[in-house]
Amino acid sequence: MPLSIQNLASRLTFRQLQVFKAVYDLKSYSKAGELLGLTQPAISSQVRHLEQALGLPMFEYVGRKLYCTAAGEEMAKCVRSVFAALEQVQNNLAALEGQVAGELRLVAVNTAQYVVPYMLRAFIDYVQQNIRRFEQLFLRRSEQ
Q: Are residues 44 and 87 in the same domain?
């Protein structure tokens, strides 16, 4: 019988979700441990506690290869949305404090390492000068 939301929420931790996501993304307990600064047994323990709380296995080994179960695939969708919602909350709270927050991804050829720092500095200066306008724009979008 499935747990109630309150019981499930009291048995899960964000750390377990973070560990699950790392194992899911990297398809490896040891690589997830390296990424998170944990030992492989600590990763295994977190996943085991998550599986016990949910009552279903998230991963299985076939030979030496790690596969995600159907329950694990469903959990991966949920974990992605939980972390996306947390990121949105973090950005919204930063905006309330007048800060620009979020993730900036740059992709460039290796010769761009000489140009990008100057471009990035100009971008940061521009954002700082226009922060109020960006804040108003952001608030209007979040109200829609």
A: yes
| Distance (Å, whole) CA 79 – CA 75 | 6
Query: Once rounded to an integer, what is the mean pLDDT over residues 11-20?
Result: 94
Residue 62 has pLDDT above 70, yes or no: yes
User: Same domain, yes or no, for 75 and 108?
Assistant: no
Contact between 12 and 50 (Cβ < 8 Å): yes
Q: How far is Cα of residue 56 from the mean position of the Cα atoms in its chain?
A: 22
For residues 33 and 42, is the Cβ–Cβ distance under 8 A? yes
Q: Which domain holds residue 14?
A: 5-92
Residue corresponding to tokens 């492989």: 40
The token pair that represents 112 in the structure block: 């761009």
| Rg value, the chain, Cα | 20
What confidence tens digit (pLDDT) does each residue in 81-108 have? 999 999 888 888 887 777 766 677 777 7
Give residue 78's identity as a one-letter amino acid code. Answer: C
**What phi-psi label fits residue 55: left (phi over 0), alpha (psi between -120 and 50 degrees) or beta?**
left
Say if 98 falls within a structural domain: no
The Cα–Cα gap between 96 and 135 comes to: 8
Helix (H) or strand (E) holding 73: helix 70-96
